[in-house]
């Protein structure tokens, strides 16, 4: 049993880095390493399929809906846009949802998941700082993600899922009374804020600060609640008035977006994709399927991006609907609702924070289906489901003991 669990841990450890495509390293974008990556992900999906049909409860039905929607989208890309099935391997990274069901049968511990995420979170920070300080050459990601913007060389570094989750784990452990290294965890959590600021993404900065604030206000005494609020307000004010290129760039971009109103490019893109893009009723329900860049369908998408600035990745939830349809949207909505109502022990609240982060950013980012986030989302839902199932078993045992005691007393 122990050897099986350790083998599962190694498998998940490798699956994460393959799913992240080595943080989109340029050396892994073509050739044999790309082929190995796709082969490993496909293998993980195949061994997960036997566990797909199981009793519903918790997050099982939402994940089934999403996995099913992505699977059939292959055929709708052909039906609606004539995209040949030879392009179907493009969809493989998105089918990582099936691994959720393998994990439920694997017995992998939550502690093992935490360690794997923290390891890759540290790797993410190291690689980002390396790329940030060597921005004249693209080592990770794509050239279009490197640009001078908002007063800084803005790098949209790939693989953000493990980074954000590792930060939420750290902030959770920093306030856990049983943690021996609480100040190191706090330092890691603060470093996470610095990394997000350096990436100059307003939404990510706001959401991360909000979730940190919620956490600290929930876990500390009244006097510390006041101190926390004051600290956040003062730090925010000091940054916005620091007169640095970064702070001025963020402020100017905010003013531009606010003044655009209905002409804001994201609003125009969302309106177009929702009302004009999909050509038939079936695809309005089941989605258009994912586009391969080299197919005619993919070239249509690239043309909309290049000619009009209509990037699906900038309109999040609309992207899910356009590619995978209403049932995928329903799956995500169910996940977000359940994240509020399914209880968790306090030392696992980082699972909620991660789900709330992708929920709060889902309208203006592609975090819902970006392959830099998908594997992390699957791991989070597995841990959440396992905790829920364990609590259900405990409740049944407790209720049975009460019933037996009642009968004996009678």
TrEMBL record:
<feature type="transmembrane region" description="Helical">
    <location>
        <begin position="35"/>
        <end position="53"/>
    </location>
</feature>
<protein>
    <recommendedName>
        <fullName>O-antigen ligase domain-containing protein</fullName>
    </recommendedName>
</protein>
<feature type="transmembrane region" description="Helical">
    <location>
        <begin position="152"/>
        <end position="171"/>
    </location>
</feature>
<feature type="transmembrane region" description="Helical">
    <location>
        <begin position="183"/>
        <end position="202"/>
    </location>
</feature>
<keyword id="KW-1133">Transmembrane helix</keyword>
<feature type="transmembrane region" description="Helical">
    <location>
        <begin position="320"/>
        <end position="341"/>
    </location>
</feature>
<feature type="transmembrane region" description="Helical">
    <location>
        <begin position="353"/>
        <end position="384"/>
    </location>
</feature>
<keyword id="KW-0812">Transmembrane</keyword>
<feature type="transmembrane region" description="Helical">
    <location>
        <begin position="116"/>
        <end position="132"/>
    </location>
</feature>
<feature type="transmembrane region" description="Helical">
    <location>
        <begin position="60"/>
        <end position="81"/>
    </location>
</feature>
<feature type="transmembrane region" description="Helical">
    <location>
        <begin position="222"/>
        <end position="240"/>
    </location>
</feature>
<keyword id="KW-0472">Membrane</keyword>
<feature type="transmembrane region" description="Helical">
    <location>
        <begin position="87"/>
        <end position="104"/>
    </location>
</feature>
